[in-house]
Sequence to fold (335 residues):
Amino acid sequence: MTLLFSVLMPAYQAVATIDAAVESVVAQRLESWELVIADDGSTDGTYEKALAWRAREERVRLVHHVGRTNLGRPATRNLTVREARGSLVAFLDADDLWLPEALTVFRQGFERFPTAAVVYAEAETFGEAPIPPPRARGIPNVEAHMLRQLARFNTLVTSATAVRRSAFPDPPFPETLPLAQDWACWLSLARSYPFVFLPQTVARYRLNPAGGQAVVALRDYRPQYFGWQVGHLRSLAREATTAEEARAFREGLEFRATEAFQMAASALRRGRLARSLNWLRRGFVAAGSLRGLALAAMEVFPRQRLVWRRGELPLTITSAPDPAERRTAGRPGAE
Fold:
């Protein structure tokens, strides 16, 4: 059997959920896959459960860091990519689940769009956590250029995403970002390759109170998350190789400034002056100038505030070729 997909599963302290996650891979209708479980120094029995799966299923592989140390999510994701043998990789976190047709949907997407580096689909949610559920969004069934979109906000759910392995940057997931490494990886891929969104549900995303999105939702933690994203966008803007790339990253920073101004206005309405001033300061850092901060304020009142109240954010995806997202070197369709 020719190996097609490498399924990548980082796992840390997932003893309560890893069996169900692995079972959802074994139940795939498409049988040409390997599952790479990378244990990140778990101490709760996750490693032993993964060992048991390796003994039961020959397509399951188990890897870990040297000395079974805990190096964190991005380092563990990078380990799974290094160990992958398939030309296509798909992600499934150890607390999420796949529907039986997930790999079939991904394969059909890559076959239909041979130059796309990323195929992503929808996920339904289950469980409880104080966070809004993630939502995959895009233009269905076209090769879309998403650099401008992703510079603003992430529209992909990791456990409902597959990538051509040859397209990954090195390293795929930046280990300097404590969170949002998946966003940073998609952003890097979008500089060179088109994405395809398939409006089909392939995964079940667990709303985990201890998960990364829940951590970001905590009031005292969100400013740090905001700062990490701004710093990453600034570094990309300095490395931009085209005017279109520079514009995309600048617009992403302006969007963050608008977000900060929204947070400042919300805090001010609740009488929290110090918090409002702190968010204004962050907005100035993101905008880079008083003019940029003024533009952010104009976006908040009234139009942007109404957009945010609906729980919707504007999409800036295009199916037209864009020099910022399309380069000539390393196109995955040339495999």
